[in-house]
Each structure stands twice: as C-alpha cells, then as structure tokens.
Amino acid sequence: MSKKFVVVAGSPIEHSLSPVMHKAGYEELKIDWDYFKVELTAGSFPDYVKNRDGNLIGMSLTMPLKEVALQIADSVTELATKVNSANTLLFKDGKVLAGNTDIYGIVAALQTNKNLDVTNPSIIGSGATARSAIAALSQLGANKVLICARNQTTSNQLINVAQSFGITPTEITWKDIHKALAASTVISTLPSGAMDTYAAMGPEIPGSLLDVAYSPWPSKIALEWILRRGFVVSGLEMLLHQGLRQFELMTDKKAPAKQMREALFKN
Question: Do residues 20 and 263 make contact, with C-beta atoms less than 8 angstroms apart?
Fold first, then answer.
C-alpha cells in the first residue's frame, strides 16, 4: 500500500462501523489515510502484526483479539493490563503499543445521563468489555457491582478485576438476571440478540441502561427501557467515544467529534 492506513480487526468483523467513523474524521481533517476491516482470529492475529505492512499506523481491535493483544505488544498501558483487555494497537518506531480506549468510551457514554446513579450498578456478561466496564464504573465512583454471567471461569476473573479496583462484587446467578436488570445502572456487554429473551424482565421503573450491542438498534431490551421511561444509551455512543480517543492517539490530532458522530449515527 502506498499510503498510511489503519484497520479494525476481529471475527466476525463485517458489521463494524469503525471505518465509517474514522474515515469521516480523516476526510474532515484532510488526512490522506485509509481505514479497512480485516477478519482475524486469535490464531491469525499475531502473524498479521508481525508481518504488518510498513504503512499500517495502528489497529482497532474487537472480539476475540483484546486479550491476545497484550501478549504480542512490546508495551501495554497500566489500565489495559489491569483489565486484561486492549482494543487499540499503535505501531511506533518498530514497537507495538497496546492500550484500552473502551474504558473511556463507557465512561463518556454513561455520562450522557446527567442524573447517572452508580450506587448500585450491574454488569451482564463477563468478557473483555465487562472488565473494561468495571474500570469505567470505578472512574465514575462506584464502590460495588452486581455481576451476572453464565461463564463461571470468566465471571471469576471479572470478580478479581472488580476487587483490584476496590469495588465489592456480588455475583448473581443467570436465573436471577431480573435482579441485575433492577440495578441503578445496567451495563449489558452481551452480543446482539443475546438479551432479547430477558428484555421484558426489567423493572417497571428502570434506571440507566448501556447496551453495548448496537445492531440492530434499538435492541429489544433498549425498546423495553424506552417504553418504561428508563434512560438508554446505545452502544454506538460507546463506539463513538472510544473511537474519538483512538483517532487522537493514532493521528496526534483533535478528533472532529461532530463529523465522526454524524457519520456513525446516520448508518
């Protein structure tokens, strides 16, 4: 490739809206870069990075690469290390730098609610995004969290991460998911459609909901929340804010938030 470029990588990757957002930023600032989607698994990812094109500036990472990224990086930020999740790679002077802008994205998305209440928050799911959500809740001042997940191994890891941030975790079994939905702020980190069956189990007067799954939108649970007059934040809001921070790390320029937002939300 003759010009500099960035990629978003993961599997599946076809649904990603990152290219739309980043390209809008390049266009606005007249940066002659490109941005592509690349389907990579945990197995093919290390070789891609090792044999990368010299014009590759950085990578935005999604499932299932966020943990592997820490193992192949030359340096990892403290927060990314703590949550064992990196969604951003930068290539500088032949070195691979890993960081996490998901945490910032979750904080900024939740702060769109001026009356946010994190006195009794919950996280549904226990993967990489759930660990980033713990760090975000910590930054927002939470000191306890309800955890509801089906995978006991990753749930245990999430509990350890919560404790490392000084947050007291309480585990809820999957059959008691309604208790998690009754929290003051609910962060669902499950993939698209995974919450559909439980959407109607929320309380009559719900709190805040951040549903990181943004396609299709509104999701069934988001629709229930809207109908019951709860506060809903789309995963697109998180995607936008983590993307703005990524853009700035990669370009060393202030991200044109207005244009990037418009490109993302019109899709």
Answer: yes
